[in-house]
Amino acid sequence: MIFVTGGAGYIGSHACVELINAGLDVTVFDNFCNSQPDVLTRVARITGKAPTLVQGDIRDSAALEAALRASGARAVIHFAGLKAVGESVQNPLAYYDNNVLGTLRLLQAMTKCDVKTLVFSSSATVYGDPQRLPLTEDHPLSATNPYGQSKLVIEEMLRDLHRSDPAWRISILRYFNPVGAHTSGLIGEDPQGTPNNLLPYVAQVAAGRRAFLNVWGNDYDTPDGTGVRDYIHVVDLALGHLKALQRLALHAECRAINLGTGVGYSVLGMLRAFEQASGKPVPYQVAPRRAGDIAACYADPSLALSLLGWRAERDLTAMCTDAWRWQSSEKG
Ligand code: NAD
Ligand code: UFG
Asked: What ligand is nearest to the CA atom of residue 210?
């Protein structure tokens, strides 16, 4: 049994599918602040098996501990958290509360239940403005906004915890830019309001829901002047969590591992790929740089390959095709 916080969310729901497909039982603990309960019905439609669902907030220690104990889980995958960079600048305390305090409460509940295996959702944002590319895990860490700072604080908390008790088994997965959706078209990213992230916005323009994409700056030091990122298919990302659990079954360690493809694509490159996959035009206009953005960010994913035997398999066409299928479905 695996206990999955935030399992109804974008990445968590795809991870649930892969966990269940691998024969594992799953308990999802989610407060639905950024997801809908019917996602789990969709997970059951894909896999033939529903995860157990407990609605609750990770900051509610009693509810969390009771759910963890009742699940009988021996490992936790921790996706629950807030993730909007701009919102974190406006409301930093919400991020320290939900992300940092929430994780602290989770670690306390795990300690009480003697569950010491954890896979944590970190982010490439902890590398700050890259000093060198590709990014290796030993690159200096920094944060440029409260969201990133919350991830950094949690990472430090996890390293301190492991130092104090080496029986803990912790995998800190640093995601690059997750995109795409499950090939069934039943689950995907479902942003509320105006999407902050590139691909959901591009998908809505292609669908005719928005008139054009704002390209935030074309004067970066990149091949076409637009920002370059390491986009990774969410199913590949989900599979990385299974591999991390498999490694933790054999190693009591606390390690940070990049999950990316190692390849960077520009905003205009993504736009063209999406036009091809969808067969729809994606009009755009160049707008000023977005505050806090960096020119380029992509992973050196070789540690994931050597330690986990994992590498991203799905290419840009699959990312765009699957995102478009989801966007074109009744839900997306
Ligand atoms: P998401 O918002 O789709 O999923 C998060 C889930 O956690 C949601 O279902 C939400 O309802 C739940 N949740 C939030 N706070 C909670 C709380 N206090 N108690 C219980 N449930 C709570 O986000 P996602 O894209 O699936 O991201 C999952 C994790 O991965 C997050 O920790 C995020 O910071 C991290 N991450 C995401 C990205 C990305 O671009 N999507 C990149 C790097 C890291
Ligand atoms: N972009 C546009 N127009 C848009 C949206 C984005 O031009 O409407 C550009 C950005 O300027 C950037 C690129 O598209 O160059 C990607 O932007 P995203 O917002 O999709 O992704 P970011 O790399 O800025 O941030 C994402 C997550 C963060 C996480 C970071 C690193 O949103 O939470 O990846 O993992 F920290």
From this structure: 2
